[in-house]
């Protein structure tokens, strides 16, 4: 929970800083080149305390609106309805801010010789200019946030900076997490309900991703691929702990899944570590892609979970990098044949030492 709260705090601070900079920039642009013969010093309109206060109010309000609209109730709405609700809330935030600003600004800036009433400001040309600026900045922030959500945490900056414009080799850990008995469940629920089930499950995965510093590489049907740089994935056994945290989350929400879908979802996983090549691919749609045998091996290991009756299987190469004593029990299986591999590979079953992980695995 501490890491999740830290993530929320950083999101709030980022929005406060962004809006403070935006407010300061507006004052500079609005009054840049002001003629001195108007007997008015435009520097009087650039008040750091005022900018910080407005940035704090806007950043906090914008953050609370984002938190509200990120709830599943609103995420299920069509984009137009979602955007309409957000625009309405943003407008209320702006109007409230304008009302506060007409009172707050003269208090912070003693050089203002004439107070302007809220009614006068509401129907002024400056009000129109401020409102347009507010809408533009709100749109840019929302667009940036949506792009981050689309690409995953940290990926947007890597693309903007061109970090992987040319292919680069990196050591990575990959974890393939797949819904068990997905074909049977899809036939039982139908495509629409099955898609909603996957939406709910992957929404419940969010906390695990944030807490254990994972990157979401891809969603492929009912499967999600997580990855870490080796140092981050091995710290506190993040690459293993993320999976078991996800399992525990699904266990806690078992009543919701049974009531909504008539079943409790179980996920199996396979992990492997090794060298991979990272590169930007595509022209019309660009994304980061990982290439190398490490992904194929991780996928094949995950495919052996049903056969070996394990929730989580990892390779010896990954197990050797982790400190799994105490919190986890290990069971090394004899070398198994993996499709596309010339030699059989030993695999290791991992179970958390907890009541949840000791429960019998579902059949299928």
From TrEMBL:
Protein keywords: Membrane, Transmembrane, Transmembrane helix
UniProt GO molecular function: adenylate cyclase activity
GO biological process: cyclic nucleotide biosynthetic process; intracellular signal transduction
Name under which the protein is recorded: Guanylate cyclase domain-containing protein
PROSITE patterns: GUANYLATE_CYCLASE_2
Residue ranges constituting the Guanylate cyclase domain according to the UniProt record: 173-302
TM regions (residue ranges): 12-32, 52-69, 89-106, 126-144
Alphabetized CDD domains for the sequence: CHD
Keyword hit for Transmembrane helix: yes
InterPro entries: A/G_cyclase (IPR001054), Adenylyl/Guanylyl_Cyclase_3/4 (IPR050697), Nucleotide_cyclase (IPR029787)
Statement: the UniProt record of this protein carries the keyword Transmembrane helix: yes
Highest taxon of source: Bacteria
Entries under Pfam families matching the protein: Guanylate_cyc
